[in-house]
Amino acid sequence: MRLSLRFKVSALVLILVTPLFLFVYYTNVYSTNIVREKVSKSASDTLTLHLGSLDELLEQTNAYLVRTASESMLLELYSESGPDTVNYYLSIRKLMDQWYSDVSYYSIIRTVFVYHLTRDELFLSSQKEYYQEKDDIRSGLSDRLRASALPTSSNWETVAVGGEPALFKAMPDKSGRLLIGVLVSIDSLAQPLTQLESVKSDEKIGIVSKEGDLLWGKFTDQDLTRIHGALNSSSNRTGASVRLDDGKSYLFVNKPSLYSDLNVFILLDEKSLLDELPLFQRVIKFIPVAIIVVLVILIVLLSRLVFRPIQTLTSGMRILGKGQLEFRLKEGSSKEFQLITQQFNRMAEQIGDLKIDVYEEKMKVQQAELKHLQAQINPHFFMNSLNIVFHLVELQKYPLIKKMIGHLVSYFRFIMSTNDSWITLASEMNHIRHYMEIQMVMYPDKLTFEERLPKELEDTLVPPLLVQPFVENAIKHGFVNNLLPFKVSITASTEAGNDGEPCLVIQIGDSGPGFDAERLESLNAGWYEKEPTDRHLGIWNVRRRLNMFFDERASLAFRNGPQGGGIVEMKIPMAKKR
């Protein structure tokens, strides 16, 4: 009968370790208090480190709030403009776009809002649903919004908005007519705490307010009462003990936040603290000879029982990795290695079929990724378009409303129904026309569009949504001076490629300020491909699809025009409609 490897190793270790057990147990009793103090100090240091990161996030968010309230020209434009002016809607739109980007960048920010004290207007950008968050702020912060004076404390205030706890801070702008506020999500703020390496199933983390309300974590009311008592106790110190409803005693460590009324604490199960005691390291100091003997015996026996079979298995895997699929292992002397050998030999027989399956699955994933890249829609453009239609309805400009809705329908029909991998260049340009018509309604008498598409190039096949991201970027980043007319132009032509075959050249230009030197170098170097951000997501999308369709035969270049403005040039191999 073959004995299992587990039985052999267990029996061997038991025989060798039993003489040392009593001595180790005796040493462990005297080490309990030392371990408790060290664990408490380690937990306190770790908590201080992470709480420092938390306070740093709050400090950065506070600096962002101060900078926004004191330096934003858009807030000043909105404050000075009436609801019946173009500047009013333009400033609101750009504020929402800017704050949406800020909320995405500052991950702890739940909502940024501006409240007009005299007009009782509230606009915001939030990670929550817009209208629900708007109602929650009006109901949850009504007293603070209408207060004649803001709190003088520099700390963040704990509030409940929409049934969820959050940190709140607000300040007036330069004119004194606006109140700019920020809500910080406590759940997002607490995320770094979940990364504590010391946190295990027998340890608990929580956040409470100065009033003792639980803001993050899972504890019963009775547990909270005991925790609050430990926080308020004059004798409270690092390493205090708290007994919870589960019957266990916990080592209580807490730290207060510098910039808010939050208290972060860790509860460590005192019973499990001894598990961290390095027992065998202490034994080595007192009985080195015994340990050396044990190690020698273990190495010799493990070499025969474990290391040698593992080495054989490793050699077999190397041979299999070189493509010699006919190689097979001999069965081992233990049950475990016998099973491993059988599975290894069976795996070798199935690798050929698996290679084919993996290749087919890779093709499916690539096709799915292509569909995903083609289907990306800018939610800001959709919301801003609906907002423009809403205001046109209020102004009763029905012909302009019909025109705007017609272009929106055509625009989103194209976006939603683009299932083909290829479309004609004429279809792509027709889609761009609808997009520009919508933009020209948003910016009347300020935006013009010019296209040059030769008749012979209309049937040229291109991937869908190839040009639109650059037209969007031209308007977003080039149209910075709303007082001057802005022009977008698209030119299609052909030229000979590096391989002598004709290629399609598409240039998207604008009359804006163009690219600065640093941005131009970054774009042409392709740094956005390594770490794509929201700012370069459209460029990354196009570059990725060009690689998928044309490999390295397509090119994408950025430059400034001789008369000013930015120019984006794409070169792709010619493909005619069949």
Could you walk me through the main structural features you see in this protein, from its secondary elements to its overall organization?
It is a single chain. The protein has 578 residues and is of the alpha+beta class. The protein folds into 3 domains: 1-286, no CATH class; 287-372, no CATH class; 375-573, Heat Shock Protein 90 (2-Layer Sandwich), CATH 3.30.565. The chain has helices spanning 5-71, 73-80, 86-105, 130-140, 142-145, 186-189, 221-232, 279-286, 288-321, 335-374, 379-394, 398-416, 425-442, 468-478, 517-525, 527-530, 537-550, and strands at 109-116, 121-126, 157-161, 164-172, 178-185, 203-208, 214-216, 240-243, 249-256, 263-269, 423-424, 447-452, 461-462, 486-496, 502-510, 555-560, 566-573. It has a 5-stranded antiparallel beta sheet. A 5-stranded antiparallel beta sheet has the order 7-6-10-9-8. A 5-stranded mixed beta sheet has the order 12-14-15-17-16. α2 (73-80) runs antiparallel to α3. The longest helix is centred in the N-terminal third of the chain and has 67 residues, at 5-71. The relative contact order is 0.07.
- The rounded distance between the terminal residues' Cα atoms is 74 Å
Count of runs of 4 or more consecutive helical residues: 17
Radius of gyration: 34 Å
Domains, number: 3
**Principal-axis shape:** flat
β content, as a range? Answer: 15-25%
Given helix and strand content, the structural type is alpha+beta
Largest sheet: 5 strands, antiparallel
| Helix content bin | 40-55%
In the sheet with the most strands, the strands line up as 2-1-5-4-3
Overall strand count: 17
Poorly predicted spans: none
Give average pLDDT, whole number: 77
